[in-house]
Amino acid sequence: MWHTPFLRISTGVPRMSRLRNWLADYQATGLPVIAQVMGTDGGRLAATGGRLHQLGVSCVDVNCACPSPTVVRNQSGGARLKHPEWICDTIHRLRESCGNKGVSVKIRIGFESASEFPRIAEALRKCRPDIVFLHFRTVQEMYGPVPGGWQRFRMARELLEGLTLVGCGDVCSVEDVSRLASICPGLDGVSVARGLLRDPLLLRRIEHGCGGELVEGAGDALEFLLEIARESGRPAGADNGFVLKLARAMFGGEHEHFLRIADARNVGNTISYLEGQVRKQAQE
Ligand SMILES: Cc1cc2nc3c(=O)[nH]c(=O)nc-3n(C[C@H](O)[C@H](O)[C@H](O)COP(=O)(O)O)c2cc1C
Q: Does residue 178 lie in a domain region?
């Protein structure tokens, strides 16, 4: 399923037409969509959630995890972890406005310290979201190294007994999933972010590692970039910064593909380069 990036709800509740446009590309794939919202006004988040469910999403997710300094300065995202009672109240409001359909929450283990987690868990046990997506770092740890960080999932699993718990953070391979599962067998699932940018096949590999079927060829890195460049809707002359960013994440800044896409400068040239590479790959 898709888990969208956050939609910031600040001064008002977005119109249906705006939400429909926002969801269109995800829904066009036919996969279920978890639509994520972020903000500080529980009423507006709930009203937006109601509209998103009317538009057919499977679940509305509240972002209480984002560590971006701008977001946190606005008391949004990860800053919400300082107010567990707000999280509880907002999930209740969403439940009402969403007609009891899917509601979830994305959190980190704490704002400043993992010792805040018992209070956060207490609030979650009261409001019972359908899924808790947990990144093991605190907000202040941003994306830095946390030795033994996955151990924190054990405490979370215990304190969130009976709730569906999906772990994330630093899962970049099938081996990582096995290691994480041996540290915390009670997790209901994993989600991946940065690893997927580097390896578009990652979810397929994990699915296969967990006993599913491997779809050969799906998710090839160059085809993935080509599809993104083509589907972006940007004119050929527009800059290709978004593909370039992805190419750096996937191949690294020294790799020939990255350097050639940097040279290509615009979307049209990037598409031509990628088409050539995909053709070459198919012939090999
Ligand atoms: C470029 C980027 C954008 C992200 N945007 C969001 C977002 O909109 N909402 C969210 O809940 N998490 C977002 N995340 C966080 C990831 O969902 C995930 O929790 C975090 O990156 C840790 O997992 P990873 O180690 O697999 O990347 C983002 C991460 C990255 C790298």
A: no
Q: Is the CB of 193 under 6 A from ligand 1?
A: yes
Distance 65 CA to ligand 1 centre (A): 9
Q: In angstroms, what CA-CA distances link 202 with 145, 180, 206, 209?
A: 22, 16, 6, 10
Quick one: tokens of 134?
A: 């947990």
How confident is the model over 117-156, as pLDDT tens digits? 999 999 999 999 999 999 999 999 999 999 999 999 999 9
- Cα(210) to ligand 1 centroid in Å equals 23
Ligand 1 close to Cβ of residue 76 (< 6 A): no
Tell me the CA–centroid distance for residue 183 and ligand 1, in Å: 22
| 117 plus 255 within the same structural domain | no
If asked whether residues 229 and 139 sit together in one domain, one would say: no
